[in-house]
Amino acid sequence: MSIGNSPEDERPFEDPSEEAPLSIGRALKQARISAGLTVDDVSSATRVRIVIIHAIESDDFAPCGGDVYARGHIRTLARAVHLDPAPLMERFDDTHGGRPAPTPAAPLFEAERIRPERRGPNWTAAMVAAIVAVVGFVGFTAFTGGDDDGSTKQVADGATPTTGKTASPTTKSDKPVTEKPEPSDSAIAAAPQDKVTVQVSATDGRSWVAAKDHNGRLLFDGLLKQGDSKTFQDSEKINLVLGDAGAIDLYVNGKKLDDDFRPGAVERLTYTKGDPQVG
After folding, report:
1. Contact of 204 with 247, CB cutoff 8 Å
2. Whole-structure pTM over 0.85, yes or no?
């Protein structure tokens, strides 16, 4: 009986600690969950349909309609969940045949080929037209020679032709026309007390913001860059969702709120006519 290693002992050693890198879909899904956002939130912020977001998070890019659209969706979703899109784009290009080649420009000689040829002037036609004009003038003069005494005399004597009454110029009012100015943010902030007014300002960074009125109608859904602000007004209440509440300053019914929102925190808020106070 021989003593030695069995075939099972000769198999290569596998390190269980080594894990494959996250796929594009799993990376986007984990970043979305870490940001505290639902698929509906991301769809509202990016205008990407929910069914496409679910497909991309499952690494199924067929519903995107092509590699060009898939690359655009991946970049948009990555920015919405605060993820760097560059590594995901490189991974997508490596697994889908690289970046799409640009469309070649049309050759310049094709445009030159369709230019009309320049032709010289047709002197024969010009001479024929001149002869016809001379013959016509002579015939017209011979036919009307005895009937133009009055008109000829009037022109020879330098008589001034009679003209009709001149229309009097229309006078314009001296009163300047003033345009109605657009209301500023400060004027909106001082809205009537029978309404609720909320101003959102991105002072410490950028943040995704969604706002709805009391009927659930969407007033705004997008990304506010640093320095941007939006003002919302309703007769009863304003519902807000802040993607990064720590970057936002809030003004409710003309008063600034002293909030303590953490950077990166997602906040869902409601304000009414009796505020400022967090609803």
Report:
1. yes
2. no
